[in-house]
Amino acid sequence: MKALLQVHDVSHRFGASSVLNHVSLAVAPGSYTVLLGPSGSGKTTLLSILGGFLLPSDGRIVIRGEDCTAVPPAKRPTATVFQDYALFPHMSVGGNVGFGLRMRGMGRIERDERAKAALEQVGLPGAFARKPHELSGGQRQRVALARALVVEPAVLLLDEPLGALDLKLRRQMQDELKAIQKRAGTAFIHVTHDQEEAMALADHCVVMNAGRIEDEGPPERVYARPATRFTAGFMGESTMIAGTVTKRGTIETVLGTFAALHKTSAGARVTLAIRPEHVGLARTRGNLGKGLVTDVVFQGSFKRVLARSAAGDGFAIIAKLAADSAVRPGDMVSFACDPAHLIVLTE
Amino acid sequence: MRVLAIIYAALLYGFIFLPVAVLILFSFQATSFPIPPFTGPSLRWYGAVLSDGRLTAGLVNSVLVALASSAAAVLLGFRSAWGLAHFRLPGAAWLRGLITIPLTVSYLIIGMGLLIMFNAIGLPKSLWAAGVGHVVINLPLCFAIIYSQMGDHQLTIERAARDLGAAEWQVLLLITAPMLWPALFAAFFLSMTFSWDEFVISWLLTRFDTTLPVEIWNLMRSGLNPKTNAVGALVFGVSIMLAILFELIALRRRPA
User: Fold this and answer.
1) Fewest CB atoms less than 10 Å from the CB: which of A184, A214, B86, B216?
2) By three-state DSSP, how is residue A337 classified?
3) ipTM confidence score
4) What is the Cα–Cα distance from A325 to A328, expressed in whole angstroms?
5) Contact B161 A88 (CB under 8 A)
6) Cβ neighbours of B162 in A, within 8 Å
7) Minimal Cα distance from A144: which residue of B?
8) What number of other Cβ atoms are within 10 A of residue A224's Cβ?
9) Do the chains contact at A51 and B160, CB–CB below 8 Å?
10) CA neighbours within 13 Å on the CB side: how many for B135?
11) Consecutive 10-residue runs of chain A (347 residues): their mean pLDDT?
12) Is the preceding omega at residue A218 within 30 degrees of 0, hence cis?
């Protein structure tokens, strides 16, 4: 499939500090792409460049086969949903949603009709005549979404769209956002620092750090088989064990030899990572050895168990155990994992 | 305690408003001297003011100068606030300070400076010159009021409008100005108040056609009579009206 939007080797500097380093990215039509990273990773800068608010120091942006790098926001086929919604406070909700169409010279009657349809699409059919300040945070978010969608952009850019909402509303809006995206069929590019949000929404998850793309792919793959150590850490916690690749293509650690899928050449120093849900208790001797339980946190559907390994330098073991598990702090227990779930991270 | 507080408040407000109250009371005097006993009420002296050609001309001049200079001050203040809010300029803090500094300079100094400069460039004393003086004293105020309302939020909203296809003039006309209208009107009415009351600059910079405060001063040189009280009461009434308009608009400002 031909890419709808392409980022070709884009770099950006603010004064002396470099915020984006040779970033390239392709976005497929109708896809939901999430740019995920901590603050300062360059994700918001990249979104500003895509929206036309920032001219990159280097590189090109191609949308629908046309070079848009220097095209101003008003003229490019993108629309942005801003973090604080940026609704026009002096206009009604209908005036807000119809604004883009008004700028395109559409008559009032048709414009109002389209605005009403867009409000219906985001689940706010009755809000047309109301003022933004009469709406709740979640409702304003929907108005901002309708306002951007009604101009039928090729790509919709969302800058931390759920950042201002409380946790419960955030999870609810997250589901709706995905549903709206599927209905509209528009490609969404969404910036967030919340990896749960990223995993729930993304078709294509792009992990960014220090101005570079660390890893990209389907969220399941990025979580289960992260390409880099940073990605592994950012997508969730893991038990980390240092090791060395031996000639036979296996990995030697303080706990013995592990067989794991990897492409690293012999002699390389690597880290084995295991996600907490893949760590369990062993009846006899487990392949992760014994550990002294230091903390048990009951979290409703599971218990989060922290332990210190008895082997080697005493690395930390993190496990997600069943809620009825009888482990207590101070216990010495054996841990095990399915070698199929081992993640091999190179330095 | 409560009684003391009430007495204190009464004394305080009395101190501020008693002179004005006396002035207004004796503007309704029926006889020829604004001194007790009070012989009114009578509108005799208001009639005299309105049939005095010089005073009514001064009144019209004052209104014209106030309207024109306030409009110019608001427009210039808005443009400079907009520029300083939208662009990162080298030494922006200094530029902001430089715009607001005339607030601390006495009107006498500003008036003399303008007089010397107008003499040097050959601009004669006139209402225009006084109007320029009023722009000089009101521009910093308008800038400060309008600039205080231009936050990052405003900039993001303008960005959203541009993103949706608005040209720069459409952003200004449909988004920025309507969002800032309380600040624009507040600045306008406050400028009107200051221009309306202003004496020193008008006195220095006008000659034949002049503003109402200067005409009142001319009138007072020939001694006190209830006509000065009547015209003073009129000036005060207009000032209060403008101040109330300013308060109404400033206090009704929507929470951002």
Assistant:
1) B86
2) strand
3) 0.78
4) 9
5) yes
6) 72-74
7) B160
8) 13
9) no
10) 18
11) 84 88 91 91 91 90 89 90 90 92 90 91 87 89 91 91 84 88 91 90 92 91 89 88 80 80 74 89 82 89 89 84 88 87 82
12) no
| Average pLDDT in chain B | 85
Contact A90 B179 (CB under 8 A): yes
Of A51, A53, A99, the CB nearest to B161: A99
| Contact call for residues A217 and A233 (beta carbons, < 8 A) | no
Q: Does the bond joining B37 to the residue before it have cis omega, within 30 degrees of 0?
A: yes
Nearest to B162 among A74, A84, A104 (CB): A74
CB A204 within 8 A of CB A221: no
**Nearest Cβ partner of A84 from B153, B170, B179?**
B153
Q: Among A54, A96, A103, which would you mutate to test the B interface (most chain B Cβ atoms within 10 Å of its Cβ)?
A: A103
Q: What is the pLDDT of residues B44-61, one digit of tens each?
A: 778 877 887 788 888 888
The structure tokens listed for A129 are 């005549």
The contact set of B with A (CB < 8 A) is 153, 156-157, 159-167, 170, 175, 178-179, 254-255
What DSSP string runs through A180-232? HHHHH--EEEEEES-HHHHHHH-SEEEEEETTEEEEEE-HHHHHHS-SSHHHH
Given A75, A86, A133, which is nearest B160 (Cβ)?
A86
pLDDT tens digit sequence for B92-133: 888 888 888 888 888 899 889 988 998 889 888 888 888 898
Q: Are A187 and A28 in contact (CB under 8 A)?
A: yes
Instruction: Give the CA radius of gyration of chain B.
Output: 22
Q: What is the pLDDT of residues A57-115, one digit of tens each?
A: 989 999 998 898 889 888 889 999 998 889 999 999 999 999 999 999 888 999 999 99
Q: Tell me if residue B184 falls in helix, strand or coil.
A: helix
Assign B196 to helix, strand or coil: helix
pTM of the model: 0.77
Burial bucket for residue B246 (CB in 10 Å: 0-12, 13-18, 19+) = buried
Contacting residues of A for B168, CB less than 8 Å apart? none
Integer Rg of chain A from CA: 24
Closest residue to B165, CB basis, from A51, A88, A100: A100
Contacts of A86 in chain B (CB under 8 A): 153, 156-157, 159-160
CB B27 within 8 A of CB B233: yes
Name every chain B residue with its beta carbon within 8 A of the beta carbon of A147: 164
Q: How far apart are CA A9 and CA A11, in angstroms?
A: 7
Q: How many residues does chain B have?
A: 256
Closest chain B residue by Cα to residue A52: B163
